[in-house]
Structures
1.
Amino acid sequence: MNYMPKIDRRSFLVGTAAVGGGLSLGFPLPFGADVAHAQGGTPEINAWVVIRPDDTVVIRIARAEMGQGSQTGLAQLVAEELDCDWSKVTTEIPTPGQNVARKRVWGNFNSSGSRAIRESNEYVRKGGAAAREMLLQAAANEWKVPVSELAVAKGVITHKASNRSTTYGKVAEAAAKLEPPTDVKLKDPKDWTIAGKPLKRLDTADKVTGKQKYSIDFTLPGMLCAAMKECPVFGGKLKSFDAAKITSMPGVKKVVPSGDTAVAVIADTWWQAKTALAALPIEWDEGPNAKASSASIAE
């Protein structure tokens, strides 16, 4: 499989942000290099928060969602410090490859042992807080007023003294040009209105409607899929299989042994490979553990 896509996700995101006047915000991590450069005239300070002109807030999540709700939980933490409108929040997940290419700007992708929120909650909150300060400063610069006179709620910035208001989406492009703050103050948890609240998960709708794309949905031109079956007894081996019985089944390309203990069916799609594998006559040499049982193991 030699084909490689000619555009990566990062280039697409930065390029579209330049066209649409979007803002990508971030912050230095204690374990990652700070990345800052311009492409298409739009600087990317880091890679955590993107705010589009229509006030959509895209929060990038660098921990795996495995059903435990970390994707929504981490987004809540960022959104809380950002003071944005939760109804306009969406997420996207960078790839480990992008993380390596960018000197681990997203840090550790590991989500085992409930670490997704426990180990990253502070620095993702700082990302939201840094973004909020930059957006407020951009509005203060535009109105020529002290940033201390501004207030923000749900992504709307107001200057009470002059009765003016604006939104994050309108000042995003100007905020992107500012130097990120080196130190930010986080909210007291007692003041939280988004973080820690029982909100609807962001990933549920796409999963129940089939819109969510999983690794199994990923395809490339000319790509084939394989389904494998290993000897069901530990220490056993593959004795024989009758490939002729399934070679005429839809999509099947080839049936091959995999080492001494398994067989694989290669087909156009994984489902075709799986279906054919289930129909493949296989004979196993189960070896000395064939008669093993719970009782014999306990003994």
Note: Confidence is low (pLDDT under 50) at residues 1-21, 25-43.
2.
Amino acid sequence: MTDNIYTIEPIGKIHSILTELAEAPMQGTEGGFEAWLEVAPKFAQGLFGIKVGDDLIVLTWLHRSQRDTLQVHPRGRQEAPLRGVFSTRSQDRPNPIGLHQVTVLEVAGQKIRVAPLEAIDGTPIVDIKPVLKHERPQF
């Protein structure tokens, strides 16, 4: 394996009433809030076609996470056996990429109001993708 370094340019940031990690639910479906996705002007044309009611996957860079963590007690429960971070949804991991499924509530220029979102205010947005509506193949 070669050592490569990749650069990710955030396309925007999240505006949320959540400002502290301790206040945030573990998943958006566990009490997430409405929040605004603000896309930088140079990427705003990429929002064309997004409309109210769409389900989106928002990829974020969890900028306040621990990047040297490789094992965690799932959901912070000390009584749970340790697991590797790649088998959990822990925010602490080598590349702290957040994955959030949200629904569009409003589109206003280069901003999209969504819910439910558990990311804190100022979290960089890496990408936005639509949720694909199709049946999963059986294996």
Note: DSSP finds no helices and eight strands in the chain.
